[in-house]
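Below is how a single chain appears once it has passed through the pipeline. First comes the sequence as given, then the structure the pipeline wrote out for it. We keep one example in the README because the format questions we get most often are answered faster by looking than by reading.
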Amino acid sequence: MLKPNVLRNKKDFSALYNKGRSVGDRYVVLFFKKNGKAYNRTAFLASKKVGKSVIRNRARRLMKESYRSIEKDLAIGYDIIFIARKTILNLKYADVKKSMEAAIKRSGLRKKLK
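Resulting structure:
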């Protein structure tokens, strides 16, 4: 069974790129758009410009792990794509996490405190 919180369909990606908003940071680019669901759907991408497959997979793993620690602070009901920039090479987890947090803060996706 497929996980419901992962973006997969081409139409979802196209809608996000065309109608969504984007925020760039030093190491990642964040695309986001409301999805009308009770959960967030995410995708983590690294193009061939980033490097060979080992490097791209490491970049995606770093972004996924950073997202796991940030996830609880995010607002619900969004489609989110994180795209690795070429500058993500040879970085540590803490650097990627800080970059993702900055992008999320700038996008306004943090939960509103009551």
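Strands lie at 21-24, 28-34, 41-45, 78-84.

See the next section for the split statistics.
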